[in-house]
UniProtKB/TrEMBL annotation:
It comes from the Bacteria. This is Replicative helicase inhibitor G39P N-terminal domain-containing protein. It comes from Paenibacillus plantarum. SUPFAM superfamilies: Replisome organizer (g39p helicase loader/inhibitor protein) (SSF89064). Gene3D superfamilies: Replisome organizer (g39p helicase loader/inhibitor protein).
Length: 116
């Protein structure tokens, strides 16, 4: 990417992330890192980043492809963690059924077994 393309990239980032520092030193440093990068790929990665992240991108994030399903996977992981936490808590707090209920279930099982 040339310096003009880096300036365009910075304008786009600044448009979506008001707290992004778009100073001359940073533009120069990013140009050095993105000089060999494909502009189309970088802009596509920026579009994905904007859709998925609330903070401005780093050079590394613009150079690698972002998994569009990462947010979905993160939600699944969090949901699974919550479920297992609940299951463990329920297991710890559970109590056995009263003996009278256990006897009724045993009697019912015996009657059904004798019918067949």
């Amino acid at each position: 990417m040339n310096k003009l393309e880096i300036a365009e990239l910075f304008r786009e980032i600044k448009l979506h992330y008001a707290n992004f520092d778009a100073g001359a030193d940073k533009r120069e440093a990013w140009h050095k890192r993105l000089e060999q990068a494909d502009k189309t790929a970088v802009m596509q990665n920026l579009d994905q980043h904007i859709k998925l992240r609330e903070f401005p991108p780093t050079v590394a994030e613009l150079l690698k492809t972002i998994d569009p399903y990462q947010g979905y996977h993160d939600n699944l992981k969090e949901s699974a963690h919550e479920l297992f936490t609940d299951l463990n808590q329920w297991r710890e707090n559970s109590v056995a059924p009263p003996e009278s209920l256990r006897e009724k279930v045993r009697d019912l099982a015996i009657r059904r077994a004798n019918r067949n």
